[in-house]
TrEMBL record:
GO terms of molecular function: lipid-linked peptidoglycan transporter activity; peptidoglycan glycosyltransferase activity
Protein name: Probable peptidoglycan glycosyltransferase FtsW
Pathway membership: Cell wall biogenesis; peptidoglycan biosynthesis
Family annotation (InterPro entries): FtsW, FtsW/RodA
Gene Ontology CC annotation, any one: cell division site
Chain ranges passing through the membrane: 28-47, 67-87, 93-113, 158-174, 186-211, 283-304, 316-337, 349-370
Keywords tagged on the record: Cell cycle, Cell division, Cell membrane, Cell shape, Cell wall biogenesis/degradation, Glycosyltransferase, Membrane, Peptidoglycan synthesis, Transferase, Transmembrane, Transmembrane helix
Entry's EC annotation: 2.4.99.28
Bilayer topology annotation: Multi-pass membrane protein
Source superkingdom: Bacteria
Signal sequence, renumbered to the chain: none
GO terms classed as biological process: cell division; cell wall organization; peptidoglycan biosynthetic process; regulation of cell shape
Catalytic reaction(s) noted: [GlcNAc-(1->4)-Mur2Ac(oyl-L-Ala-gamma-D-Glu-L-Lys-D-Ala-D-Ala)](n)-di-trans,octa-cis-undecaprenyl diphosphate + beta-D-GlcNAc-(1->4)-Mur2Ac(oyl-L-Ala-gamma-D-Glu-L-Lys-D-Ala-D-Ala)-di-trans,octa-cis-undecaprenyl diphosphate = [GlcNAc-(1->4)-Mur2Ac(oyl-L-Ala-gamma-D-Glu-L-Lys-D-Ala-D-Ala)](n+1)-di-trans,octa-cis-undecaprenyl diphosphate + di-trans,octa-cis-undecaprenyl diphosphate + H(+)
Amino acid sequence: MTEMVYGAVPAQRGEPILPKWWRTVDKWSLSCVLILSVVGLLLGLAASPPLAARNGFQPFHYVERQAAFGALAMVAMLLTSMLSPTLVRRLSVLGFVGAFIALALLPVLGTDFGKGAVRWYSLGFASLQPSEFMKPVFIVVSAWMLAASQEINGPPGKVWSVSLCILIVGMLVMQPDFGQASLVLFGWAVMYFVAGAPMLLLLGMAGAVVLGGTVAYSSSEHFARRIDGFLSPEVDPTTQLGYATNAIREGGLFGVGVGEGQVKWSLPDAHTDFIIAVAAEEYGLILVMIIIALYCLVVVRSLLRLMRERDPFIRLAGTGLACIFGVQAMINMGVAVRLLPAKGMTLPFVSYGGSSLIAAGISVGMLLALTRTRPQGEIGDILRGRG
């Protein structure tokens, strides 16, 4: 507990890997992620039995699968968090190659599961969504390129990262998956800004995003329907947004009681995209605020630790990973309360989903690895002339 309050102790040379990891890892962020996973199982017990009944499974079929995927996610997170920044970078390059090939082959080998967008590979016992794994490895690879461009006589990393970002976003939009494309673009833009991008370039990028949204609205009926539904002053009570809005309103401050919620019987995505509506109805605003606080704590603590980091690659990659983690949670909850247009995006570690859970574990594992305390001077020492 003392280390959680006063910070981790820098690692010593020759120290065994587990004690070294425990001394240096951010225990507050680790604890928050573990709590979020427990909350996800708790909400899964409430939200998934009606769906299991509709699909002819045992009542806790989806809960058991979520527990299994969650366990794999925790193992992936812990193992990844023990890696050095160099290993994180090298494995991310290999992961990026694999995820890129998987994305490229989706139009040929992928399936849409009747949802109108080819985003998954069907493995029989489960499905695989390559875009979930592309996000963290793309962030790390782009951070490596941006950091390399800052070296004397370094490669044109900024040009490479821009080209890579455009390519990946284009592949995601073609599925179509505008949500994941926006998340990838946002994470890259944050890193580009931190790396010292000119303001005019950022404004130009913002204009390009607006232009792209206009084109998507004109050419995609699916995209236009969601935007029109968001802008409409009236909410159709028979839509997912209508059910979610009513559930949040009914929950009030303390909720209607465990197992007493009704929205899970109406929402087909109550265990995934709209899990926060189940939390709000059965447990009230109190649990929702706790969930928000847990996400905020992970993001803020990570960014504060990264501000003291000297290595440009670690600062950039950590910032990108922390921001996409927080923004994905914000988008999921923002859709449920109608602050954002409807978008199929899971709540990290809380929503059901194999690919999303394991990819979130890898992403946060990378973040924990990059924010571990290392025996180095802080960046402030450079500014004070002691570096």
